[in-house]
Write a structure and sequence with these properties.
The chain has helices at about 1-20, 25-55, 65-75, 85-100, 115-140, 150-160, 170-190, 205-225, 265-285, 290-295, 300-310, 330-355; strands at about 230-235, 255. By secondary structure, the chain is mainly α. The longest helix is centred in the N-terminal third of the chain and has 30 residues, at about 25-55. The model has no long low-confidence stretch (mean pLDDT about 90).
Length: about 350
């Protein structure tokens, strides 16, 4: 920024010296002013491009065990059942707000207003945060359906569901920050042996409830990504139930294709969602290890994580390509859909194994 100010200062000083040394007519002065304005515009554009490259960095992956241990050491907490999952959820949510450039979705000024990849990445992460926060409130922290819900989680959950694009009062960041603070309070109470009202129940039914949500999210992402190439799809909405009905008529065959301007939006939403999910799955592996071992499902979960990790590989082109399925150019959306579909199939098998195994 200081360098930018010096450049502007030099331009004006040079212009003043020219005006003092050589008498020029009004038209020449006007041309000089236009030249200065053009230089200012060029420098402004260059500065914005540099900032955009900085803001466009995807946060690095982190070790969930190390993050849990760090939080425990920092605040004097005990690592109990559910601590790693809650600490990981907090880390993912804090990364959403504190990554390079901060939270960009609700920015209304350059350069953030011209960027759409990171805001879509943020939305993908946010969906996973919301789903686990709600499951934590409704299931993981409660022993049964008739039990009382945790007070801190009751405050945290709706704040995570606040409008993700609010730039005026209350701002999105302030609401999510309050949600994180409430989650911190829950984590503190959870790790305190004297706070018996804060609990985390690592039971099979609770894990299945969350996996049901994840299954639906990944299925949705896979469908949106696959639609990057036009295809005809048979309407299977009412399959399996002869008495089933729906609100309005839909034809038996549907033509599905994502709008060209939405291709990269869907891709980066999926990339953000899977980034968050990788960390949450690794935390679940630790807190639900006993349940998974009993059902002989630990390897199944690890294979799901491995499939999801493939979605985070480097992109070697400056833009998301949208070639046809077997065409000359790659189709990044179809590649991403392949990894997500395989992970989703693994989650379906894992859920069935937990329920019936």
């Amino acid at each position: 920024m200081l360098g930018f100010v010096k450049i502007i200062k030099n331009i004006f000083e040079k212009q003043i010296m020219t005006d003092n040394r050589y008498p020029v007519n009004k038209q020449a002065k006007k041309r000089n002013k236009i030249r200065v304005i053009l230089w200012l515009i060029i420098l402004f554009v260059i500065a914005n491009i540099v900032i955009m490259f900085y803001f466009d960095q995807k946060p690095e992956m982190f070790d969930v065990q190390k993050i849990a241990a760090k939080r425990a050491d920092l605040h004097g907490h005990n690592i109990v059942t559910g601590f790693t999952t809650t600490a990981t959820l907090l880390e993912v949510a804090e990364t959403l707000l504190n990554k390079p450039g901060g939270y960009l979705t609700n920015d209304k000024l350059p350069p953030s207003v011209f960027m759409d990849n990171i805001p879509n990445w943020e939305y993908g992460v946010l969906v996973q945060v919301r789903d686990l926060a709600r499951t934590l409130r409704n299931d993981l922290s409660r022993s049964q359906s008739q039990s009382l819900e945790d007070e801190d989680l009751k405050e945290s959950d709706p704040k995570f569901h606040f409008n993700n694009n609010s730039w005026w009062l209350p701002r999105t960041e302030s609401q999510y920050g309050e949600a994180i603070d409430d989650m911190h309070h829950y984590l503190t109470r959870l790790s305190d042996d004297n706070q018996e009202d804060a609990q985390f129940y690592a039971r099979t039914d609770n894990l299945v409830t969350w996996l049901n949500l994840v299954e639906k999210r990944l299925g949705n992402l896979s469908q949106k990504l696959s639609a990057s190439v036009e295809k005809e799809r048979l309407n299977t909405d009412l399959s399996g139930d002869t008495a089933a009905t729906q609100s309005t008529y839909k034809p038996s065959e549907l033509k599905v294709q994502t709008d060209w301007f939405k291709i990269d939006d869907n891709f980066f939403e999926a990339r953000g969602s899977t980034w968050a999910l990788i960390h949450l799955m690794k935390a679940i592996e630790i807190d639900f290890k006993g349940v998974l071992q009993k059902k002989n499902a630990l390897i199944s979960l690890r294979q799901i994580i491995r499939e999801l990790e493939s979605t985070q590989e480097s992109i070697w082109t400056p833009m998301i390509l949208n070639g046809s399925g077997f065409g000359f150019f790659a189709n990044h959306s179809l590649v991403m859909a392949s990894y997500i579909s395989r992970a989703n199939a693994g989650i379906i098998d894992l859920r069935q194994l937990l329920e019936n195994g």
